[in-house]
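Project standup — Tuesday

K.O.: blocked on the structure for the chain from last sprint. Re-posting the sequence here as requested.
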Amino acid sequence: QVQLVESGGGLVQAGGSLRLSCAASRSIFSGNIMGWYRQAPGKQRELVAYISASHGTWYVGSIKGRFTIARDDTKNTLYLQMNSLKPEDTAVYYCAAGISPVTRWGQGTQVTVSS
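H.V.: unblocked you, prediction finished:
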């Protein structure tokens, strides 16, 4: 049973934008903190942003001001709007339900930013 499905990744030039989406089941999404992680080649998976059920947000310092996390509680969908992308943003991006600990992971979507 697939609970979280990411989409919206792709290849983009530096300075460009992408919007990632994560479709979730109601049972997983409702009332849960949701976040985005990423894992670049040769690096540890890191938390990029999260959003609480009350829509409070947090961002890792390296992307703050460039990315925006949002959630649509009616559609049970999580978003990550990524602007001013840099090559260092290249990674597989994972949707996650629950933070510390994560209770459910998506399969990931590849984001590649070229110079």
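K.O.: great, moving the ticket to review. The CA atoms of residues 23 and 77 lie 5 Å apart. The two ends are 38 Å apart (CA to CA).
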